[in-house]
Design goal:
By secondary structure, this protein is an alpha/beta fold. It has one domain: TIM Barrel (Alpha-Beta Barrel), CATH 3.20.20.210. It contains 16 helices and 9 strands. Strands 1-4-5-6-7-8-9 form a 7-stranded parallel sheet. A two-stranded antiparallel ribbon has the order 2-3. Helix 12 (about 215-230) links the parallel strand 5 (about 200-205) and strand 6 (about 240-245). Helix 9 (about 145-155) crosses helix 11 (about 175-200), helix 10 (about 165-170) packs across helix 11 and helix 15 packs across helix 16. The longest helix has 25 residues, at about 175-200. The chain is globular. It starts with 6 loop residues before the first helix and ends with a helix.
C-alpha cells in the first residue's frame, strides 16, 4: 500500500524533506479524552493491550486528534518478558509489577525464547488491523524494549530509581547476565522482524533505563545487544534507538546500522551530530515545556527546531508525553513544527 505521507521514513533515511516530521512518544494514551473514555470501560491496561481491535483504535486516535506524521502501535515493552514466561501486572498508580523475578541460573533456564506468532500474536494482529485501518495515511511504528531495560524489570520486579538488584547482577554474575540478555535479544529480534511482517514501516528500540549504567557496563551489557538487533532488521526498515540518559553511548550508536538516534531533553543535538555523522536525530523538547502557555510552547518548539536544523531531524519530545498534558498544547507543538520547519526550508531555498 502506497503511503500518502512518508515524511518520517524519508527523514530517517537522510533524504531531503519539505518539512520536519513530528510525532510524540506515548502519543496514544492518557492525554486524549477518547482514550480515557475507552479505557474506563475495560478491566485495565492489559486488556487494552491484548485486544487487537481496541489497541488499533487507540493507536489511530492521535492521528485523528493531533495530526501527527506517524502512528506507533499501542503496546508495552513488558509484553516481551511475559512472552518469555515471566508474567507482569500493571498496578494502577504504581506501574508494572512482576510477582516472580529472575534470581538464578535456574530461573533463566526456565525462560523460553518466545515465538512471536504463538506468544505475541495479539500485538501482531493489532499491527495488521491498524495497518488496514490507517489506509496508508501515515507510517506505522513498531517497537520493543532494549534487552538491558527488559532485564532490569525482570530482575528488579518493578520500577526503581536505582535498579540496584539488576545492576548487582551485572557486577556479581556477568555470565548469568549475558545468558539472560541472550534470550531477551533472540526473542526481541524475532518479535521485531514479525512486527515488520505484520505491517510496521519503522521500528524503535527503547532503552528507558540506559542512563543508570556506567559507560563500561552500558557498552558491555546494552549497546552490543542493541547493535545486534539493529543489524538483524531488514535493510529497508529504519530503526531508531532511544537510550534515555546515555549521552556517553553515542560512539556506540554511531557504529550501529540504526538510522535514527533519539535524544532526551538534556542533550545538545549540535554536539551529538559531531559524534554520529550523517544519522538522523529525533527529539527532544522537554515534555514539561508543554505545560507552558501556547506562546511559550511555540517559542520552545522553534528553539528546538533551530538547534537541530532543517534536515535529518524527526521532531519529538525528549521522553514520553506526560499524562496530565493538555492536548491543546500538544497541537500547538505539532502545528509549530510543521509551520516553522517549512519556513526554515523556504529560507534556505
Amino acid at each position: 500500500m502506497m503511503l500518502k505521507n512518508d515524511l518520517i521514513l524519508r527523514a530517517a533515511r537522510g533524504e531531503q524533506t519539505e518539512r520536519t516530521p513530528v510525532w510524540l512518544m506515548r502519543q496514544a494514551g492518557r492525554i486524549l479524552p477518547e482514550y480515557r473514555a475507552l479505557r474506563a470501560k475495560l478491566s485495565g491496561f492489559k486488556e487494552l493491550v491484548e485486544t487487537p481491535d481496541l489497541a488499533a483504535e487507540v493507536t489511530i486516535q492521535p492521528i485523528d486528534a493531533l495530526d501527527v506524521d506517524a502512528a506507533i502501535i499501542f503496546s508495552d515493552i513488558l509484553v516481551v518478558p511475559e512472552a518469555m514466561g515471566l508474567t507482569y501486572e500493571m498496578v494502577e498508580a504504581r506501574g508494572p509489577l512482576f510477582p516472580e523475578t529472575v534470581k538464578s541460573a535456574a530461573d533463566v533456564a526456565r525462560l523460553r525464547v518466545a515465538d512471536p506468532e504463538e506468544h505475541l500474536g495479539y500485538v501482531l494482529e493489532a499491527l495488521r488491523v491498524t495497518k488496514k485501518a490507517l489506509g496508508g495515511r501515515v507510517p506505522l511504528i513498531g517497537f520493543a524494549g532494549a534487552p538491558w531495560t527488559i532485564l532490569a524489570y525482570m530482575v528488579e520486579g518493578h520500577g526503581s530509581k536505582t535498579f540496584s538488584k539488576a545492576r548487582r547482577m551485572l557486577f556479581q554474575d556477568p555470565e548469568l547476565s549475558h545468558q539472560l540478555l541472550r534470550k531477551i535479544t533472540d526473542t526481541t529480534i524475532a518479535y521485531l522482524r514479525a512486527q515488520v511482517e505484520a505491517g510496521a514501516n519503522m521500528l524503535q528500540v527503547f532503552d528507558s533505563w540506559a542512563g543508570i549504567l556506567n559507560p563500561q557496563h552500558y557498552h558491555e551489557f546494552s549497546a552490543r545487544y542493541i547493535g545486534e538487533i539493529c543489524a538483524a532488521m531488514p535493510a529497508d526498515v529504519p530503526v531508531t534507538v532511544f537510550a534515555k540518559g546515555a549521552f556517553f553511548a553515542h560512539h556506540d550508536f554511531a557504529q550501529m546500522p540504526c538510522r535514527t538516534i533519539g535524544l532526551d531533553w538534556n542533550e545538545d543535538p549540535r554536539a551529538v551530530r559531531q559524534l554520529v555523522g550523517d544519522k538522523t536525530l529525533q527529539g527532544n523538547l522537554d515534555p514539561c515545556a508543554l505545560y507552558g502557555t501556547p506562546e511559550q510552547v511555540r517559542a520552545a518548539t522553534i528553539e528546538m527546531l533551530e538547534r537541530f536544523g532543517p534536515q535529518r531531524h524527526i521532531a519529538n519530545l525528549g521522553h514520553g508525553v506526560y499524562p496530565d498534558t493538555n492536548p491543546e498544547r500538544v497541537k500547538v507543538f505539532v502545528e509549530t513544527v510543521k509551520e516553522h520547519s517549512t519556513r526554515m526550508r523556504q529560507d534556505l531555498a
